[in-house]
Amino acid sequence: MLVLARKKFRKIQRRALISSFYLALLFLVWLLLSSYINLGNTKQLSAYDDDWDDISEFRKEISNLGIDTKSLVSSPLLLNEIENPTNTTFVISGVEKDTFSLPSIGSDSGFISFSEPEGYSGSEISAITSFVARGGTVIVLDDFGYSSGIADEVGISYSNHRLYDDEYAVELDYNYVWMNISQNHTDWEDSEQFHIGHSRWHQGTDPTGTGMHPCSIWSESEIVFATKEEAGLCSHHYNSTSKMIDYSPDYNLLLNAPSAFESIEFSGDFSYYEAVGRSSPQSYLDLNDDGKVTLETETAQSEADAQGPFDVYIETCDSSDCADSRGGRIYFISDGSVLINAIYDFESANSGEYDEDGKSIANIPVNDNRKWILDVIAESALTANNFTNKDAIFASSDAMVIFDESRHSQNVLFTDAYNLIYFLLVYLTGDGIGMLLLFILLFLAFEAVLIKKTDPEPWRHIFNIIYYGFGDAKRYGYYTRTNKIKQVFLSRVRNLNALSREEFDRMPAQQLQELIKDPQLIKFVFENKKYDLEQTVAIVKRIKAWQKS
User: Fold this and answer.
1) Nearest C-alpha neighbor of 345 from the set 318, 382, 381, 371
2) Residue 251 DSSP symbol
3) In angstroms, rounded to a whole number, what is the distance separating the alpha carbons of residues 201 and 375?
4) Residues 59-73 as b or e (16 or more Cβ within 10 Å = b)
5) Which one-letter DSSP state was computed for residue 205?
6) Residue 404: which of 18, 120, 87 has the closest Cα?
7) Where are the strands (E) in 271-356, listed by range?
8) Is there a cis peptide before residue 508, judged by omega within 30 degrees of 0?
9) 526-531, long-range: CB within 8 Å, 24+ apart, which pairs?
10) Residue 536 contacts residue 544 (beta carbons within 8 Å)
11) Most confidently modeled of 51-60, 137-146, 203-212, 510-519?
12) Range name among 42-56, 150-164, 324-338 with the lowest pLDDT average
C-alpha cells in the first residue's frame, strides 16, 4: 500500500509541475503578444480592405492589368527567396509598428547586434537593399512611421515633423497638401524650349534619353493603338482621339498630413539620387511640434519653424542616372496616404462610395496620384526595351507587386498573433543568428528530454524467476536483498496473469491478495519486515513452488 501511495503522489506531483510549466509559458506568451498587439489601433492602408483609408483600388487596378499581386505578412526576409526580382515591386505603405529587437549580425561590423533600426531589423533592411541591388523596385510611402531604418541605410533622413503648406486643397482643409512635380528642364534639342514636370521620365538625363520613362518613349514612337486596352501598362496615358499614347510629365500629387525629408546631401551607396518633388516656398516644417506655424519674428525663446521648400519625394537608383531599365530603384514619399482609396479613386469617393457611419467623404479634388503610381509600376515592369512590338507594352509573366502587410496594425487578436508567429518562423529559418538560436533551442530541448526521461527497470528473464534458488542467490548477489526478491515475485505474478505494468499498478490490494492466495507470500509482499537468511531461503522456496491457481 505504501508503494502504491508513493506512486500516486509522484503522479500528482508530476501533473502539478507540468501544469505550472504551461501556465508560466502561456503567461510569457501573453506578455509578448500584449507588447506587440494593440487592438485599439485602427486598421488602415491595407491592400486587401475596402475602406476609404485603404489602398485596395490600386491593387485591383494593377491586378486587372495582368500583374500578379501578393501580400507579405511575416517579414521582408522572404525577398531573398525571389531569384530574379527585376520585374517585382515591393510596396511599403505606412509602417505602423516597430520590429522586434532580435539578435542579428550587423551589416557593417559583422558582430552580433541586439539593437535594431526602427521599423525593420538589420537583416530585413539588408534583404530589402539586396532586393534592389538585384533589380527590384521598392516604394516607401511613410511620414511619421518606422521607415527611417530603410531611409538611413540609403543615406536619406526623415525630419519626423509635420509639414504645413499654403498650397493646400482649399476644397478640403490644410491637412491636404499639394505637391507639384514641376522640375523646370530645357529641351535637349531646343535650348530655348522649357518643360515642366518629371525631367528624367520626360526626356532622360542626357540627349540620348537615358532613364526615360517607357511610356514617354512609346509616346514619341507615335504608334497607333486601336483601343485603350491595347496600350497595356501605358493605358492611363491613352488618347482616344489620336489613338496614341500621350505621355504628360506633369504630376499634381495630393498628400494627407505629410512630413518631409531632411535637407542634407545624400550619402548612400546608390549611384543616383534626385529630389523630384518639393513643397512650395510658402511651406513650413513644425520643428517644435506645437501644431501651428511659428515664425522667427513671433518667438524669442522657443524654436521657430523652418520655411520651405522641402524635399517630399526622392528617387534613388542602383545604376548611374537610372540608365539601366533592369536596375533597382527606391521611391520615397514622406506621406503614407498617397494611395488611399479616397484620393486614388476620387470620383468614387465624391459619389459617396466610401461614406460610412454617417461620415461623408466628398469634394476630393482631381489629382494625379493614380497616374504617378501607375507610371512607377510601368517603369518597374516594362524592362524589355522593345518599343516597336506592341506585346512589349504589357507586363511580363513574372511581373509581380508585393504589398507589405507585416507592419500594419490589426484589429483582430488572432490575425496579429498569426502574423507574429509567421514572423518568428521566418526569422528562425531565414536569418543567420535566428537559425543558430533555433539549433541551440532544439538541442537544449532534446537534452532536457533525455535528462528527464526515467531509465527503465532492469529486465528480468522468466528463467530468473522460475529457477531462482538459494544457490543462485550466492551466484547473483543482486537477489539476496528481500526487496529485490519481492520485485521478482511480483513480476512473476504479473507475467503469469498476462497483465501490463499499468494494469498491475492500478490493481487494488485486495485483488492482488486474491491472485497470490498464499498467506505467507501475502504477508511477505505487504509487510515491511526484515528477514534473516533462513527466512529468506524459506520465502524463496515458496516463490519457486508458487503457481497460478
Assistant:
1) 371
2) E
3) 9
4) bebbeebebebeebb
5) S
6) 120
7) 272-278, 283-285, 306-307, 311-317, 329-333
8) no
9) 526/1, 528/2, 530/482, 531/482
10) no
11) 51-60
12) 42-56
Rounded mean pLDDT of 383-405?
87
Largest CA distance in the chain: 127
418 CB neighbour count, 10 Å cutoff = 14
Nearest CA-CA partner of 139 in 379, 416, 341: 379
**Residue ranges of the alpha helices (H) in 37-143?**
56-64, 122-133
CA angle 359, 363, 364 (to 5 degrees): 100
Query: Is 136:90 a contact under the CB 8 Å cutoff?
Result: yes
State the helix-helix crossing angle for 56-64 and 369-381, rounded to 10 degrees: 50
Tell me the backbone φ, ψ of residue 128, rounded to 5 degrees: -70, -45
Q: How many CB atoms lie within 10 A of CB 252?
A: 17
Q: What tens digit of pLDDT does each residue of 241-276 get?
A: 999 999 988 999 999 999 999 876 766 678 888 889
Q: Check: CB of residue 411 under 8 Å from CB of residue 42.
A: yes
93-97, 299-303, 375-379, 469-473 — which is least confidently predicted? 469-473
DSSP E strand boundaries for 327-463: 329-333, 400-404
Query: What is the structure's pLDDT at 451?
Result: 63
Digit-coded pLDDT (tens) for 206-232:
887 778 899 999 988 889 999 999 999
- The partner residues of 275 in beta bridges, in order of sequence, read 314
User: Which of the 8 DSSP states describes residue 99?
Assistant: P
Render the burial of 24-44: b for 16+ CB within 10 Å, e for the rest.
eeeeeeeeeeeebbeeeeebb
Distance between CA 142 and CA 92 in Å, rounded?
A: 8
Nearest to 55 by CA among 325, 405, 366: 405
* Interior/surface letters 97-133, b for 16+ CB within 10 angstroms, e for the rest: bbbeebbbbeeeeeeebeebbbbbbbbbbbbbbebbe
The Cα 89–Cα 169 span in angstroms is 30
For residue 489, list its beta bridge partners: none
Question: What's at 139, amino acid-wise?
Answer: I
Closest C-alpha among 211, 304, 295, 297 to residue 249: 211
Q: Cα–Cα distance between 439 and 446 in angstroms, integer?
A: 11
3-class secondary structure, 152: helix
CB contact burial 379-410 (16+ within 10 A = b; e otherwise): bbbbbbeeeeebebbbbbeebbbbbbbbbbbb
How far is it, in rounded angstroms, from Cα 257 to Cα 335?
7
